[in-house]
Amino acid sequence: MRCKNMFFRRTLLSLLIGYFSLQQVIAKDEFDSDFLRHSEDDKNIDISRFNHKNGVLAGKYPADVYVNGKNKGNLSLTFAEQNKQVVLCLTPDLVNLLDLKKDAYTQPIEGDCVAAEKTLKGNFSFDTSLLKLEVNLPQALTIQHPRDYIPSTLWEDGVAAAFVNYDVDNYHYQSQGSRFEQTYLGIRAGANLGSLALRHRGSQYFFKEKDSLGNETSEKSHYSTSETYLQKDFATIRGLVTLGDFFTTSPINENMALRGIQVASDDRMLPASQRGYAPVIQGVANTNASVTIRQNGVVIYQTTVPAGAFVISDLYPSGSSGDLSVEIMEANGQKRMFIVPYASVAPLIRFGQFRYHMSAGRYRYGKDIYPDRVAQFSLQYGLLNNLTLNSGLVLHKNYQSALVGAGFNTPIGAFSTDATFAKTTFSNSNQTKRGYSLHANYSVNLLSTNTNLTLAAYRYSSKDFYTLRDTIWANHSDFIDDESIQYIENFRPKNQYQISINQSLGETLGSLYLIGSTYRYWNKTGARNEYQLAYNNNYKSVSYQFGFSQSIDLDTKNRENSVYLSLSIPFGEGNSSLSTSLTHSKEQNSVQTTFSDAIGEYNQFNYSLSASTNDRRERTLSANAYYRNNFAEYRSTISQDQDKNLQYSLGLSGSIVAHPHGITLGNSVSDSFMIIHAKDAAGALVTNTGQGQTLDYFGNAIVPYSTPYSINYAGIDPTNLPINVEFSATEKQVIPRANSISVVNFDSRINTMVLFKLRDQDGLILPMSAEAKDDVGNIVGYIAQGGILFANNLSKEKGKITVMWGMDSKAQCHFDYVVKLDKKSTEMKQIDAICHR
């Protein structure tokens, strides 16, 4: 028994010693460089640079930075060598990107390089292949922001550039010897310098008419300008300042055209989760709990909260109504639920947020600029989680108005209401009118019946309520008697009601919608009514719609009723379809059949062919075509009836952009857009647009839109390029300011691929992993198995390459080369060479 115990103890001791010895062995992976030796002289092979994770070398690297799994943006990272180790430097830009608190680091960020891992309690992992930095930090070290917060220091001004959007349309019509031709030109242009943007919009048209007797008339309009302004954003006021001719953007007051100045908040500067309206969720967790928020049965948010009171204020706004169901699941599995009312209505904003607008200047209408000076103010404030206060002012020497209102979110829907009180003075008669206007809006989504209801009502309850436009027109018109202002009276709304109902009938029964409106005017009897009722459904792949519409003319009191039925039948798996519509009204019965199709991988070409007829035996054939390529959009129409009346038109739209890399043609651009540039990469596909754009001959392409103050991705796909075209990266992030023109540069080059078969002067193979540099110190490759050096970035046709596998002079050799660098050739050149020690 004693022997057995002794054997057991010795065995256990041996196992423990072996276990702890194994832990020491596997604590650090090492590689014996002797495996790379090909001769006794290869004693100093240096592979120390590969001992560290990813083998990063000192230098600067553009990289995507992730903090605790969240993408924080792109930044140029600095790595430096300290004590024979390469460390990440904690620069001021990196501190800002990490949102570090001031007491998060133990020493000031000064000097050549402050090592991040020695200064911060966190983990830093850099992937050189993906150019990605992963940082894990305790939350106590960082400033807490909404989940998609982007610091204003990362907003990009863009480059100095200019653009012109053009839209040209030429229309012809000829009938029984008479002809009519009209040409329209629309311009939207701009120029940027830093964060300052100049924008302009205008148009001009020309028409020519010739009657059946040969008489010809023509007219060329003056160029009409609708907007020309300078605009700049300011992060400190979370808004835009506009100077020039513009349209006001008040969310409360009636907007107008001004020549002056405007200062207004811009919700796009907020994180996406803070834009629009969504309620703040508050609750209490008894343990570390999972909180799940659902709307209409769909999970829209989920997070984990610690024990105690919690607040969730970064819900994304929803485009539809529907109460929020909040579920709290405690650590022991216990679940609790509560409901938060939610319906999205325009005047509602989040708790604690505000929107403001201020503008002042001279009133504009069309091409006229009135001497009248106008000032406009509005303010919205989220007073409570479900209550928003609204206020507005309009000031003019002959007109003053004040608006007060509120928006409510309740369990039975969302309400908003406001009242405007106005005082109007007519200058010729010195008569003063005082009136008021009331407005109400209601919106609800009834989950039990799948009904979405929006009801809006406008009521002008006083004859003496006028708008600013009414006042200015009356005081500046020669033909209006401002004592009676009969002309204005006849066209001033008295009551206006609108209703919209969308009712889902289930997955197989389709949907029903109703839209209706009623308008009444002062000094006019009766009402102008418009209603539309429609039913939509589909049977397998065939979709159909049945509808009824009615309108009542205010002057004639005539009712115009119309009943229609439409069918759409797809052909195959492509985009082609055949549709037919039948319409019945008091005037006529008609039928129209249309075949349409879209061709191309990106639907670049669209066309349709139509034939229509009615019970008067009037027949018309028509065709439409549309084509889009890298440079513009082209459109055309043609039609002819049984009397050979002919109509045809041609249209062209696009943009011309001047930027630091040249002039580029493209599709129409928005106020903010991007230009991709990659030298020597003509033909590369632009990703992230879905339009099939490719880089032009000069390596440029226009991405016609970008979202201000948000992360935008710009990328290129080199798949269809020759194999010798190399990119340092194929996707980059851009965070543009409003109105910015961003140039996204991709480093690309065309390499001549050379394969060197190397031996030393003794005929021995060079060690694997040895580093090869050209005569200016650039790394051109590493020695592979069998003494092979694959060099694809030689910068000169003649030079010397040094191969190093250690710091000792005996661990180095060099050879001269002569090669013709042909960028057009994709063939690999093979050269045998002797490397001399």
Give the helices and strands, then pairings.
Elements: H1 2-26, E1 59-67, E2 70-82, E3 85-88, H2 92-98, H3 116-119, E4 123-127, E5 132-136, E6 161-175, E7 178-193, E8 196-210, E9 216-220, E10 224-234, E11 239-247, E12 257-265, E13 281-285, E14 289-295, E15 298-305, E16 308-312, E17 324-329, E18 335-340, E19 354-365, E20 368-384, E21 387-396, E22 399-410, E23 413-426, E24 431-446, E25 451-459, H4 468-476, H5 486-489, E26 493-504, E27 511-521, E28 528-539, E29 542-552, E30 559-570, E31 577-585, E32 589-599, E33 605-614, E34 619-628, E35 633-641, E36 646-659, E37 662-666, E38 673-677, E39 685-687, E40 700-703, E41 712-717, E42 725-727, E43 731-734, E44 741-745, E45 748-750, E46 754-760, E47 771-773, E48 779-784, E49 788-791, E50 798-804, E51 812-818, E52 829-835
